[in-house]
TrEMBL record, chains A, B, C, D:
Family per similarity comment: Belongs to the MIP/aquaporin (TC 1.A.8) family.
PANTHER family (UniProt xref): AQUAPORIN OR AQUAGLYCEROPORIN RELATED, AQUAPORIN-7
Gene this protein is translated from: aqp7
Keyword Zinc among record annotations: no
Entry GO MF terms: glycerol channel activity; urea transmembrane transporter activity; water channel activity
Protein name: Aquaporin-7
Amino acid sequence: MHAMEQGSVQEHGRSRKLSKIWVINEHVRVGLAETLSTYVMMVFGLGSVAQVVTGRGVFGEYLSVNLGFGLGVAMGVHIGGRVSGAHMNAAVSFSMCLFGRLGWRMLPVYILSQLIGSFLAAGTIYSLYYDAIYHYCGGNLTVSGPKATAGIFATYPATYLSLHAGFLDQVIGTAMLLLCLMALSDQRNQPAPSGGEPIAVGLLVLLIGVSLGSNSGYAINPSRDLGPRIFTAIAGWGPEVFRAGNGWWWVPVLAPMVGGVTGASIYKVFVELHHPSPCEHRREIEDEAEEEAAPLDMQKYLSPEVCV
Amino acid sequence: MHAMEQGSVQEHGRSRKLSKIWVINEHVRVGLAETLSTYVMMVFGLGSVAQVVTGRGVFGEYLSVNLGFGLGVAMGVHIGGRVSGAHMNAAVSFSMCLFGRLGWRMLPVYILSQLIGSFLAAGTIYSLYYDAIYHYCGGNLTVSGPKATAGIFATYPATYLSLHAGFLDQVIGTAMLLLCLMALSDQRNQPAPSGGEPIAVGLLVLLIGVSLGSNSGYAINPSRDLGPRIFTAIAGWGPEVFRAGNGWWWVPVLAPMVGGVTGASIYKVFVELHHPSPCEHRREIEDEAEEEAAPLDMQKYLSPEVCV
Amino acid sequence: MHAMEQGSVQEHGRSRKLSKIWVINEHVRVGLAETLSTYVMMVFGLGSVAQVVTGRGVFGEYLSVNLGFGLGVAMGVHIGGRVSGAHMNAAVSFSMCLFGRLGWRMLPVYILSQLIGSFLAAGTIYSLYYDAIYHYCGGNLTVSGPKATAGIFATYPATYLSLHAGFLDQVIGTAMLLLCLMALSDQRNQPAPSGGEPIAVGLLVLLIGVSLGSNSGYAINPSRDLGPRIFTAIAGWGPEVFRAGNGWWWVPVLAPMVGGVTGASIYKVFVELHHPSPCEHRREIEDEAEEEAAPLDMQKYLSPEVCV
Amino acid sequence: MHAMEQGSVQEHGRSRKLSKIWVINEHVRVGLAETLSTYVMMVFGLGSVAQVVTGRGVFGEYLSVNLGFGLGVAMGVHIGGRVSGAHMNAAVSFSMCLFGRLGWRMLPVYILSQLIGSFLAAGTIYSLYYDAIYHYCGGNLTVSGPKATAGIFATYPATYLSLHAGFLDQVIGTAMLLLCLMALSDQRNQPAPSGGEPIAVGLLVLLIGVSLGSNSGYAINPSRDLGPRIFTAIAGWGPEVFRAGNGWWWVPVLAPMVGGVTGASIYKVFVELHHPSPCEHRREIEDEAEEEAAPLDMQKYLSPEVCV
């Protein structure tokens, strides 16, 4: 008995140590996956913008950019999906923390990984399209004007857009993103089909680009915007990337945080909170049956095996 | 026994009361989901039109609008699919009632929710693209002419279209919609794959936009058209939105009702009524086997476990 | 025993009679489904051409036509898939007969249904776009020239295309169609996922339009081309629809028959004939294992439960 | 017992002989499937380029080419997927060999089959678009200049691209391809859904075209580029196809080999090596549970039945 107790203490000690190693390992594991997810999404996304801008209409159009970011997000989810969840977006990570789906201690790991990933992707696209960019702008790297190339990497608002309208633009865009992400993962509703989550999320981002993108280029993601902006500041475009658009840079960093939480909350208030417990629901619908026909597809919801 | 009877009466009373509460709850639950579904579909749909119109060809083209409404419908189905069925269209709800798949008492809940959802979406897009719209039209909100912007929100007929041709246009468009929706949900035929219903319905709407949209903008949906039209009347375009196109506004309200029922009936008459009961069918096909080869894929239909 | 024999004879007689009724019913059932499938495919397909032609570039582009026919085919498969197989193409039905997957007696039912379906679809699109067509061409229905509108309904060759090159064009296009259809339905290879057959076939047709369409409009289908051509001859374009392109009309009727059989045969010779019986294959691969690594994904093919 | 031993020896001899026959058969079987896969992919891919080039903007645009190669790859995977794995790309086959998923002895079979397939596809497209090509360039087959047509078959670099930048372009493009292919087939992560592999790989190739294609036409595949280049050298464009772009031809042959291995290695280092064994992982996460919330979706990973 004494020996057993000792063993149990030793076991406990070993478990503690292992646990600590595992925490570090887990941080590394999640961090590497999140970095690579974000990197892949951003190489495809920024690549599509670079191609459209430097291609002068011959190598794609606005729809190509929507496809580049949409399918890029889908591939990013394939890269890190089951390891880190492939948020690739600080606003998503922040909302997940706020709603208890991710520990707050993991938040810095996610955000740092995402920033590293998007910074490296900006560097990759800069190297890949170096000749194309210099050929396009004649070697003059500008943030605004007819041959501006900073917009390949970070987002800038349309000239007509006021700063507070731009803030609203980013809040609404990110709210729509999180609202739909909540629905796509709600197993008590009509979620993305099993295995089809990456393409469903990708089509959602494509859709946002098609409908909510013209005001300021639908960053809806601090990690997507800040990393490449820092890269351009260093790589030759200079501090103007932070001054342009009345100091626009902080809007796609802050507004998506507000929007993400807003969107997720709207889904909760309008749909998730009202999901009945299956048994309660079933009993009542049986009482109800002769009085009122159930709306279409409700039958699917009533799984008989749950309440028997 | 006496006590038990009393208990049963009490039980019954409680059940009645619970039932009533549940009816109200259910109305709220379905109504909120239907409102949010319609809202999400319309924000994406109207957003894509606003972007194409105010973007002057730089931020998308006609195909972007088809994608905006198509994928918008898919996301709407994800939002409310298992709660309200996500009709998002009064013509769909009306047809469901007529064919006994939805109680008539629920119809006002659906239609009201849809109108609220599409009205709010129009308001959201107006706020989001306020600067863009004013920049585009110079502050002059018009229903027709070269810088018309009312068409961002509600549909208007092409100048060459007579009113009765427009009525036919909306009847045929909605008939094709319901005809295909019937097939996509017919479990005895080749329905949308399980979990893939949202994207299947979305592709159907994209397809209608690609092929039946140029006459009058494929409203094929009273809820999609009337809510935003009322919004524009209030927000600055004035009563002209109801007078334009020879008083076009009532066509996309009434014609889809006629079209929806027509389309669903055609599917019933051509396909659904002829589905054999599985057992009868199987016995006969066995008699038949040596005389006539079964057409492709019929084997799948004959599930041996059903009739043994 | 006597009574039983009598009963059995009666049973036999009843079965014969039922069988005959069932044959007629089955013809009607299959014919109606095939008619509606073809009708739906053609309304969407022809509608997309009408929209692009009469819309003068504002309501879609060449890609819209590819989407219209591609997704139109997908919807057609949903309409008739489990009833008639939804061939919607006489070249497909003919190939199915030749390879023993459809009784020859059913061939006239299929072809007639397809012609009726495509003829009615041409009529529907003519009614729907009547105002648009007259507005576009000023009421002058021509088969060639700058404002030609016959090409909305049937296909015509490019001016540079010789007749024998056009024949080759239709043979190759239909061969690629059937070759890929064979693969998509080959359960011993990598077929379309269960439930995803309609969209897989639709993407195949979209792909053919994107890559093999510019010579003569990728009819690759006698039923798609002949029905609407007859309609236009009657509806106002006159006998010129049969004379245009050096009497082009018979090419998309005959060449697809040749091409379909060729394509299906190529798949058989290159892939299907070489499928090993699962047990034989498995035993040999086990002998082989240490000598040669199996190519990627072969493991999936070796289902252990089959040969134990 | 003696007889049995003899039998066993005979059995062994027969098995040896059968095995040898089977090796040859297997080479033929895999070779034919790989040839047809590559052929189908290339007919659709090259066809889409031919159509866009000779169609002068009327029959598709750059996006059509992305769709042609993307969906062409998907169809190719359907053709040979379960037989040869449908690599259709020497860089994929080479990487598979290097990572032990394919025996080196099979490599020549794959590469030869792929070259034959792409050569034959170039011949098919040349026949099919013979009239269109001659009509477009007036019979003067050139490799560069305003009416160049060699680019229909093989890739050529943009005029601004230096040779070493082009090498980097092909390395990065192929690295992204293999990196994502590794993720799409990693069953311990978020792979392509079962049955959806062909379309997932197709969308990946479409994505690469949309984002990494404008520098040099995204060959990212020695088999895709060399076969058609040899064909054009023979068919009338002459040795200039090997001299153009400073002797560009060897870049899309060699660089993808480097890129493929690089990309696959990056996925291994960032993600695959860190997959925990399910049991170890589960025990530690249980110790951990109260200290740190698991990131989103990790629950799915912990399959309870594995470690009980």
